[in-house]
Each structure stands twice: as structure tokens, then as C-alpha cells.
């Protein structure tokens, strides 16, 4: 069973609207959580990195939150743009050198 | 410019014909890793390396080999490719350990089809 579950699997939003993506994980012990953006056929690009003690981190219109107690994270996209259309991947690492990847949420922004 | 370079980007090969996908990074990173990405499954780790001459299996190492003779290079070797190895492959690198929260840099991916 995947240790990182993302929801929804996909979503469609209108340009200018906000959306929130969810990530639940069971990785333990927990070290840090990363959100990546992956355009179709391209390599993932880092959006945010949060360690155990961080609750929120922003990168422009992207804001990630982390609740290490409930093992949940969210990625909020504000005022979406067409260029936000991509897959968003939640990546969790423990205290070893392995990464656990979520299957991703595909976001489609329509004009 | 920080880069992780993979080659080839696209390859169609036949079952059993050995092939190597090269990966090179220009950031002097210690940590390098290979992943495959299949629809609906997300990225899965094949092998990783914490430094020169240090490699270890990830979650799906069967059918693959790697080597780390130099810090900048981490080739992925398919000794006898099979159709179930048809996938999109990514190489990644990072300085330090995962626990530091450093950025992981990914290559642009290599589309491999085995017929």
C-alpha cells in the first residue's frame, strides 16, 4: 500500500479560482514533505519543502500546509492561471534515503 | 545553471538488447537516484546512491543495475530489457541527505519503450 495518498486524483477549475490539493501520509518516522509540480512529459520541479516543525510555507501563489500530528498536508493554489495546469506530487521522506511519492493530482485550469 | 541531464530522452528498443541510460549532474551533489513513472502509480525509486561507489536498492530494483564511479554520473543499466520496463524514467540529484530538506533536482525524463 502506498504510504502517500493524494486527493483528488484530478480536478478542473476555472482560471482565477482557487483550489486545494490534499496529501495524507503514513511514513514514519517523518523527516520532511515536499510538493512538486510536473508538467506533462517533464521532470518534477520543486514548489515547497517543509520539515517537521513547519506548518506552512508559500511560494508565490502556492501555499503548503503541514500537520505532522495528523500526517496531512495540503497545497493551496490561489488565483489559478492556465500555466498551473500540471500534475502536483506530494513527496515524503523519513530518516532514510528513500522517498515516498504520491500518485499526484492532475489539475486542469480552463479559461 | 543547475542541471540533471539524461540521455537518451526517447528510445525504442527490443526485448533483451542491453541498454544504458546516462545521467549527469553539474552540482557536485552526493545523492543521486533513479525513478520510473507509470500511469496511476506515481514515481517509484529504482536505485539510489549516497556517494561515489555507494549504491542501494530502492523499491523496484529488479531488472536494473547502476554504478557510481564518479560523483557526477549515475548510469542506469538494463541488461536484458523486457516490455514491462516500458516506462518514463527520471534521474534526480541532491546535496546532503533527505533529512536536510534540500531541493531534489530532477532530469527531464527518458521515455523508454521495449517491444
Describe it.
The complex is a heterodimer of chains A (111) and B (115). Chain A is mostly beta strands. Chain A has no helices and 11 strands. In chain A, strands 2, 4, 5, 9, 10 and 11 form a 6-stranded mixed sheet that branches. In chain A, strands 1-3-8-7-6 form a 5-stranded antiparallel sheet, with no helix packed on it. Chain A is globular, with a radius of gyration of 13 Å. The mean pLDDT of chain A is 93. By secondary structure, chain B is mainly beta. In chain B, strands 2, 4, 5, 6, 9, 10 and 11 form a 7-stranded mixed sheet that branches. Chain B has a 4-stranded antiparallel sheet with strand order 1-3-8-7, with no helix packed on it. In chain B, strand 5 and strand 6 form a beta hairpin. Helices cover 0% and strands 50% of the residues of chain B. Chain B is built from no helices and 11 strands. The model of chain B has no long low-confidence stretch (mean pLDDT 92). Chain B is globular. Chains A and B meet through strand 4, strand 5 and strand 9 of A and strand 4, strand 5 and strand 10 of B.
Sheet of most strands of chain A: 6 strands, mixed
Quaternary organisation of the protein chains: heterodimer
Beta-strand fraction estimate of chain A: over 45%
Largest interface: A-B, 27 and 30 residues
Number of helices of chain A: 0
Can I get a quick summary?
The complex is a heterodimer of chains A (111) and B (115). Chain A is an all-beta fold.
Set out the fold topology.
The complex is a heterodimer of chains A (111) and B (115).
Chain A: E1 4-7, E2 10-14, E3 19-25, E4 32-38, E5 45-51, E6 56-59, E7 62-67, E8 72-77, E9 86-93, E10 99-101, E11 105-110
Parallel strand pairs in A: 2-11
Antiparallel strand pairs in A: 1-3, 3-8, 4-5, 4-9, 6-7, 7-8, 9-10, 9-11
Chain B: E1 4-7, E2 10-13, E3 19-25, E4 31-38, E5 42-51, E6 54-57, E7 65-66, E8 76-78, E9 87-94, E10 105-106, E11 110-114
Parallel strand pairs in B: 2-11
Antiparallel strand pairs in B: 1-3, 3-8, 4-5, 4-9, 5-6, 7-8, 9-10, 9-11
Amino acid at each position: 500500500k502506498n504510504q502517500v495518498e493524494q486527493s483528488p486524483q484530478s480536478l478542473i477549475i476555472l482560471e482565477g479560482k482557487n483550489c486545494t490539493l490534499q496529501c495524507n501520509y503514513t511514513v514514519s518516522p517523518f523527516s520532511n514533505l515536499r510538493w512538486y509540480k510536473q508538467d506533462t512529459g517533464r521532470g518534477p520541479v520543486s514548489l515547497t519543502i517543509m520539515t517537521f516543525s513547519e506548518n506552512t510555507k508559500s511560494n508565490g501563489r502556492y501555499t503548503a500546509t503541514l500537520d505532522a500530528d495528523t500526517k496531512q498536508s495540503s497545497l493551496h493554489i490561489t488565483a489559478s492561471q492556465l500555466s498551473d495546469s500540471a500534475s502536483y506530487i506530494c513527496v515524503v521522506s523519513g530518516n532514510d534515503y528513500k522517498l515516498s511519492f504520491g500518485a499526484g493530482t492532475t489539475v486542469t485550469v480552463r479559461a | 545553471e543547475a542541471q540533471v541531464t539524461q540521455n537518451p530522452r526517447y528510445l525504442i528498443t527490443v526485448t533483451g538488447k542491453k541498454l544504458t541510460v546516462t545521467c549527469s549532474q553539474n552540482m557536485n551533489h552526493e545523492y543521486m537516484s533513479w525513478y520510473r513513472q507509470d500511469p496511476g502509480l506515481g514515481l517509484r525509486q529504482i536505485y539510489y546512491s549516497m556517494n561515489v561507489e555507494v549504491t542501494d536498492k530502492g523499491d523496484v530494483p529488479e531488472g536494473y543495475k547502476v554504478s557510481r564511479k564518479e560523483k557526477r554520473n549515475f548510469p542506469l543499466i538494463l541488461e536484458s530489457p523486457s516490455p514491462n520496463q516500458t516506462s518514463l524514467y527520471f534521474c534526480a540529484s541532491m546535496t546532503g541527505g533527505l533529512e536536510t530538506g534540500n531541493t531534489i533536482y530532477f532530469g527531464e525524463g527518458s521515455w523508454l519503450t521495449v517491444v
